[in-house]
TrEMBL record:
<dbReference type="GO" id="GO:0005524">
    <property type="term" value="F:ATP binding"/>
</dbReference>
<dbReference type="InterPro" id="IPR033756">
    <property type="entry name" value="YlxH/NBP35"/>
</dbReference>
<dbReference type="InterPro" id="IPR027417">
    <property type="entry name" value="P-loop_NTPase"/>
</dbReference>
<protein>
    <submittedName>
        <fullName>P-loop NTPase</fullName>
    </submittedName>
</protein>
<keyword id="KW-0547">Nucleotide-binding</keyword>
<dbReference type="GO" id="GO:0016887">
    <property type="term" value="F:ATP hydrolysis activity"/>
</dbReference>
<dbReference type="GO" id="GO:0005829">
    <property type="term" value="C:cytosol"/>
</dbReference>
<dbReference type="InterPro" id="IPR050625">
    <property type="entry name" value="ParA/MinD_ATPase"/>
</dbReference>
<dbReference type="GO" id="GO:0051782">
    <property type="term" value="P:negative regulation of cell division"/>
</dbReference>
<dbReference type="GO" id="GO:0009898">
    <property type="term" value="C:cytoplasmic side of plasma membrane"/>
</dbReference>
<dbReference type="Pfam" id="PF10609">
    <property type="entry name" value="ParA"/>
</dbReference>
<keyword id="KW-0067">ATP-binding</keyword>
Length: 411
């Protein structure tokens, strides 16, 4: 006997409703936003985003552990959307499209976020407007166009004003802090083509630089080839160190810049170790034109402070837009310093942004692979403060700390 009911039921089971698949996450601040996003996605048959409270820790953990195509960040409670996104940006993978929802109605906000590679949606918004916007962003992803496709790493140079001032150590510790503490994808670029101690500061054994020949620089350079010349230290940390028997240092430096240019879209930060032995006027010109931040490392000696003044003057003459952070490293005891903190301020016209106090047992700790970023000391506090400045975070260091007492005494 022909059973019409059975046939209808079977046919219905054979043609399930196809859901639109967009992998996304919402970092929210208000229930109004979560309700609107949830209802909009469900009504249109799109996979509902993972909903998490908007906090740096949640962003840091989730977007690195999960494959996310679109990240939606609600900043309706923000007092400064641009500044908050500058802080959040290093926590986000460059391959995710980012939509910021905010109630800040200013053309400058749209322009600032666009320059960072983020979309901006003004709140309040209707469910249909949101879905149309999300679909447009997803369409841009499929066509490899729109905002986000050109989001690149922040380029930071650590410039040592003289040999032995600690540029390589600071580069390594900054990279470790960014990669392991902040979960920001970081590439360290070594500009010492003859030797250097980055491997010691990272605690690497049997580390060898990648050897390149004159024939290799004629090969087609793409992101895959450039990545093959870097060494993976951690899921978030990579090092590129080259050497050559038939290329001079200027040729190697130009080649290194070509390689890092190919990798700018894969990292949040590119840190370049510019120890004093390999610095040149060409480096300063490149910094002025290409870098986001220069960390100028000095020690309390006349020669170091004079070199810092020279670097500043060169950057000024080049109309550099790079932000310059002064770091004073007490490689010697305060009593042995030939210039005081007041002398430095008078000569350079500004105080150091960060001060690293002298640590007599530092060399022993380095050889034992005890990293500054993971310790609880005055030096680690200084390092975290510098990292926070690079991330655009507000310094929350307690005023009663040993570090502040030491700085007050040094003044």
């Amino acid at each position: 006997m022909f059973d019409l009911v059975d046939k209808l039921q079977s046919k219905a089971l054979e043609t399930p409703v196809r859901r639109e698949t967009i992998t996304s996450v919402l970092f929210h601040q208000t229930s109004q936003c979560t309700d609107l996003v949830d209802e909009a996605f469900r009504f249109e048959g799109i996979n509902v985003p993972t909903m998490l409270n908007n906090s740096d820790d949640n962003i840091r953990k989730h977007v690195r552990d999960a494959i996310v195509e679109i990240v939606i960040i609600e900043l309706n409670l923000s007092h400064d959307v641009t500044r908050d996104m500058e802080r959040i940006s290093p926590l986000l993978p460059n391959n995710a499209s980012v939509i910021v929802i905010g109630s800040e109605d200013a053309i400058s906000t749209i322009r600032n976020l666009k320059s960072m590679g983020f979309y901006y949606v003004f709140w309040p918004i209707t469910k249909q407007e949101l879905i149309d916007f999300v679909r447009n962003v997803n369409s841009n992803r499929q066509r490899n166009s729109g905002l986000g496709k050109d989001r690149t790493a922040k380029k930071i140079g650590v410039w040592g004003t003289k040999g032995g001032v600690g540029a390589s150590l600071l580069t390594a510790e900054l990279a470790l802090d960014l990669a392991k503490t902040q979960k920001s994808a970081t590439l360290v670029v070594d500009h010492d083509f003859r030797g250097g101690n980055l491997d010691i500061f990272f605690g690497l054994k049997k580390f060898e630089k990648k050897s390149v020949s004159r024939a290799s620089i004629a090969a087609n350079i793409d992101a895959t080839f450039a990545a093959s010349l870097s060494k993976k230290l951690d899921e978030m940390l990579f090092v590129m160190a080259l050497e050559s028997n038939d290329l001079n240092e200027l040729e190697l430096k130009d080649y290194l810049r070509m390689l890092t240019m190919q990798l700018e879209g894969q990292y949040n930060f590119i840190l370049e170790d510019l120890s004093r032995g390999s610095n040149s006027k060409q480096d300063l010109k490149h910094i002025a034109e290409q870098y986001d931040t220069l960390v100028l490392l000095i020690e309390p000696t006349v020669s170091s402070v004079r070199e810092a003044k020279r670097v500043l003057k060169n950057l000024e003459l080049s109309n550099s837009t790079a932000r310059c952070l002064f770091v004073l490293n007490y490689t010697i005891t305060e009593s042995a310093a030939s210039v005081t903190l007041a002398d430095i301020k008078s000569y350079l016209g500004r105080e150091p942004d960060v001060i690293f106090p002298n640590e007599p047992k530092l060399s022993k700790a380095i050889l034992e692979s005890k990293h500054i970023y993971s310790q609880k000391s005055a030096m680690s506090q200084s390092l975290h403060k510098l990292t926070a400045l690079l991330l655009g975070q507000v310094d929350k260091q307690p005023k009663s700390s040993f570090f502040h007492k030491w700085v007050k005494r040094a003044k």
